[in-house]
Amino acid sequence: MGDKGGDNHSEVTDFILVGIRVRPEFHSLLFLLFLTVYGMVLLGNLSMIGIIVTDPRLNTPMYFFLGNLSIIDLSYSTVIVPKAMVNILSQKKTISFAGCVAQLFLYALFMVTEAFVLAAMAYDRFIAICSPLLYTVRMSRSLCIQLVAGSYLCGWVSSILQISVTFSMSFCASRVIDHFYCDSNPIEKISCSNIFMNKMVSFSLAVLIILPTIVVIVVSYMYIVSAVLKIRSSEGRKKAFSTCSSHLGVVSLLYGTVSFVYLTPPSNPELRKVASVCYILFTPMLNPLIYSLRNKDVKDAMKKILWKKKVLL
């Protein structure tokens, strides 16, 4: 099965995912937690997508990006959680080599894409507040599509590079991955190859992804704050800030949980797994709630749909 000696990864047909280490009597409780939160992820994000698609009033750039954000959240959670739930209750906690490659590729794709989509959303808010009269001209439908397509392209390119260096390693040492999904760091730990190049590629990708997206978000909000402070009425300032508060909440949640994951000491793998659960399950669950609870347009659209259902019944 590839757990003995060998000089290349072609002898490895599958990997074993250790998962989150809990006592056997807690496996059912852990499965129930994953199932409940994943159900809320599905419900929240599918509802958000449905509301945006069906309500003509939400046919704006902001909600176009928000709809794509919900698709991304739903996707990267689905890439990992169903397999993790199966493994929680299974004695054979394996994933095929091809399945591991696909999981890492899709996870990296959606994670990187989300970072760029959030940067595009910050730019959208910048134009809306700093140049409101030119908003519909500058944030055209074609530009919005290009920004989202570019985000996916960046995710696709970075994912190809990541899996190329990760799965070019030799796995003659072990095939046991100390995680509940295929991630580059725990995979590197079971390699008997020199991983210097892998570390350099991962670091370079992180810089090329995080730096420009953070710069766009920070610079956009510097201009937004400056513009809002020039508004004389407190009601006007409150209204302007309210259009950005949901996006800021989502950005803080994303970068906070991702930082928690990757800044957790490697010597504490169980804590890193808990941090990963926060990012993979709780972040996509909370994002729709942040936008629905703090956004008047979304709340009005939800009330309209619920009223229609009430009338039909």
TrEMBL record:
Quote the Pfam families the UniProt record gives.
7tm_4 (PF13853)
Major localization listed first in the record, in broad terms? membrane
Q: How does it sit in the membrane?
A: Multi-pass membrane protein
PROSITE patterns with a match to the protein in the record: G_PROTEIN_RECEP_F1_1 (PS00237), G_PROTEIN_RECEP_F1_2 (PS50262)
- The membrane-spanning stretches of this chain are 29-51, 63-82, 147-171, 203-229, 241-262, 274-293
InterPro entries in the record, alphabetically?
A: GPCR_Rhodpsn, GPCR_Rhodpsn_7TM, Olfact_rcpt
What top-level branch of life does the organism fall under?
Eukaryota
Q: Where is the G-protein coupled receptors family 1 profile domain?
A: 44-291
Keywords per UniProt = Cell membrane, G-protein coupled receptor, Membrane, Olfaction, Receptor, Sensory transduction, Transducer, Transmembrane, Transmembrane helix
Can you say where in the cell this protein is located? Cell membrane
Q: Can you provide one Gene Ontology molecular function annotated for this UniProt record?
A: olfactory receptor activity
| Recorded GO CC terms | plasma membrane
What exactly does this protein do?
Answer: Putative odorant or sperm cell receptor.
The family note in this entry says: Belongs to the G-protein coupled receptor 1 family.
Specify the protein name: Olfactory receptor
